[in-house]
Design goal:
five-stranded mixed sheet, 18% strand, alpha+beta, single chain, 17 strands, disordered C terminus, 13 helices
Length: 500
């Protein structure tokens, strides 16, 4: 854990109230997100019990599955609701002009955003997507194709949730934890009710700690799902399930209907408290000012959504059940790239993030003591290059070596190379050379030059990223998904059988 975060957690435990951990909101929030709460039955991980969803805080929609029998009607209704929300995001598009490496294309002006209470719900939706997208399509059933399409979109959304900086599917506890630090453990922060109590306690409560203790009261506390409370299962769900099963065996239609109505009222009451908490958390996060890099990342989200819609139109085959070796390596590389970009943009946007990095030696800050705007050097081709230099005095520890490239929040496109680190009386002098963003001798960009006395914070610049070259499947050994050396490659046939 980072030192500053640890300090804030101790301060929160001492004062009894959560501490702000960020001055800006680093993820996009839609004006009309789809809130989704899910409960699952005890037993198979992907068997749903109930779903509460909607875009209006005052009009949630509750879908329940019968205690026994087919869940197809409930899944068909869920598929219609989720895909209708996704289809609404495809109403308007914009034209993107051609670039040096991409042709001109259309992109949707919006993308779906689903908010769920916690990471456990994300995993439940992932399991549900894995189950649904491989279901066979029955031409005689009007809903089978919609259910398979729901599985595809759940897989896409949960896959996006693994990418740092993505805002397609967001667990609310993780979102709140990016911006506030409570006085409880990170594991306890996974409970939405207690975490929100620390952050936004009721006015009549003395502190967030007291509000969290009240929220933990077993008599009133309701887990946000997808698993239900054991006492709730034993005292309420089990009797209703037994009554429904007995009525079904005896073909008592009225008794089954009455039991389902009682189950509907019970689950609506159970989920309503979490539903209200979700919209309360949404209001808190919406009130935070949005970071600059958020718009760029949301643009990438819209691009990914547009590409996925195009894939469904042109191909539509379900994603494979498991990534092969090359596919897994590509996915890991994309996640690493997204993590590095997200970390760099957060550092450029947020003073708190820069302060965190200073505590662990990955950044330093201080006033500019001297600047040499006329410094030049001769490049490899013999041409004179403009390389201004400056010296920063800092009291921060500087474990960085000469040659390390740095970035500064004041000029994001500029890059600074450490030339020399000199310990002095009570501080350290760091000589830097501007290597990018300053223009050329013929067209210098003097705006990148700081004034003497200006306080700057320098962070480690992300290395230029190039996607590694991965081999084709027939070029990988059989231990990593390729064909055996003495047999022909039937990968296309295998993939077709797997996808069917």
């Amino acid at each position: 854990m980072i030192r500053l975060t640890s300090l804030l957690r101790m301060r929160a435990a001492h004062t009894g109230n959560a501490q702000r951990a960020s001055q800006l909101r680093h993820l996009h929030l839609s004006d009309q997100p789809l809130m989704l709460l899910a409960l699952k039955q005890t037993g198979p991980a992907a068997r749903p019990l109930a779903v509460m969803l909607g875009t209006d805080p005052h009009r949630p929609r509750l879908l329940i599955a019968p205690p026994s029998g087919s869940t197809a009607p409930m899944l068909a209704t869920l598929a219609d609701a989720v895909t209708a929300y996704i289809d609404d995001c495809q109403r308007h598009s914009e034209h993107l002009p051609a670039t040096s490496n991409k042709p001109a294309r259309r992109r949707y002006t919006d993308a779906p955003q689903i908010l769920v209470p916690n990471p456990q719900t994300v995993q439940h939706l992932k399991d549900l997507g894995d189950d649904l997208r491989f279901r066979s399509v029955d031409d005689q059933s009007a809903h089978s194709r919609a259910v398979q399409r729901l599985g595809h979109w759940l897989t896409y959304l949960t896959d996006r949730a693994d990418l740092p900086g993505s805002a397609a599917l967001i667990p609310m506890t993780s979102f709140l934890g990016m911006h506030w630090v409570s006085g409880q453990s990170p594991q306890e922060d996974e409970d939405l009710a207690t975490l929100l109590a620390w952050i936004d306690p009721p006015r009549h409560t003395a502190s967030g700690r007291d509000a969290a203790h009240t929220a933990e009261d077993p008599a009133t506390h309701r887990p946000a799902g997808p698993a239900t409370d054991a006492a709730f299962d034993n005292d309420h769900l089990a009797p209703l399930f037994d009554t429904y099963a007995r009525a079904r065996r005896q073909a008592l239609g009225q008794e089954q209907t009455r039991t389902l109505q009682e189950l509907d009222r019970l689950l609506a009451t159970y989920l309503q408290s979490t539903w209200d908490l979700m919209w309360r958390a949404y209001a808190l996060l919406q009130a935070l000012p949005e970071a600059k890099g958020t718009a760029r990342r949301w643009g990438h989200e819209r691009t990914a959504f547009t590409d996925e819609c195009l894939y469904l139109t042109q191909d539509g085959r379900p994603w494979p059940a498991r990534d092969r070796a090359v596919g897994a390596a590509v996915r890991l590389a994309c996640m690493e790239r997204a993590a590095a970009a997200f970390a760099a943009e957060r550092a450029a946007d947020d003073p708190f993030v820069r302060a965190e990095l200073r505590t662990i030696g990955e950044a330093f800050g201080g006033p500019v003591t001297t600047i040499d705007p006329e410094h030049t050097l001769r490049g490899p081709s013999g041409r004179t290059q403009w390389r201004p230099r400056l010296t920063v005095s800092t009291t921060d520890p500087v474990p960085l070596e000469p040659g390390q490239l740095l970035a500064c929040h004041t000029h994001r496109s500029a890059r600074y190379k450490i030339c020399e680190v000199t310990p002095a009386d009570g501080d350290t002098l760091v000589e830097l050379e501007i290597t990018a963003g300053m223009g050329t001798m013929a067209r210098p960009n003097h705006a990148v030059l700081p004034e003497a006395g200006a306080f700057l914070v320098f962070t480690i610049a992300p290395a230029p990223y190039r996607m590694p070259e991965f081999p084709a499947r027939d070029q990988t050994p059989w231990t990593h998904g390729g064909p055996p050396a003495d047999q022909p490659d039937h990968s296309d046939e295998d993939e077709g059988e797997e996808e069917q």
